Amino acid sequence: MLLDIMQKLAFKTYEQMCLDKLKEIGIATASEWCSAMGYIHRGSLSKVIKRIKKTSPEKLKIYNNKKPRRYEAL
Q1: pLDDT tens-digit series, residues 18-50
Q2: Which of 15, 20, 33 has its CA nearest to residue 71?
C-alpha cells in the first residue's frame, strides 16, 4: 500500500514522460512521436531525444541510421 502511494507521488522527468508516450504508441518516427506528444513540428523533441541517447541509451532503441529513424522505448 505504501509502495503504491510512493509510486503515485514520484515525479517524472520530461524524458521519462516522452518515453512513456513512445511505449504507448509503439515504434514510431520522430514526427509521429512529436504529434503524439501534442507538438506540430517534428523537430520539437530533437533535444529530448539527444538527452535520452546521452544519459540512458538502454531505454531507447533506434532503427536505421539514416532518416527517417524509427524509435522504440524499451
Answers
A1: 999 999 999 999 999 999 989 888 788 889 999
A2: 33
Distance CA(33)–CA(16), nearest Å, equals 14
Can you list the domains of the chain with their CATH numbers?
11-73 (1.10.10.10)
User: Over the chain, what HEC string results?
Assistant: CHHHHHHHHCCCCHHHHHHHHHHHHCCEEHHHHHHHHCCCCHHHHHHHHHHHHHHCHHHEEEECCCCCCEEEEC
In degrees, rounded to 5, the angle at the alpha carbon of residue 35 between the alpha carbons of residues 12 and 71 is 70
Q: Which amino acid is at 31?
A: S
The per-residue pLDDT for 40 is 87
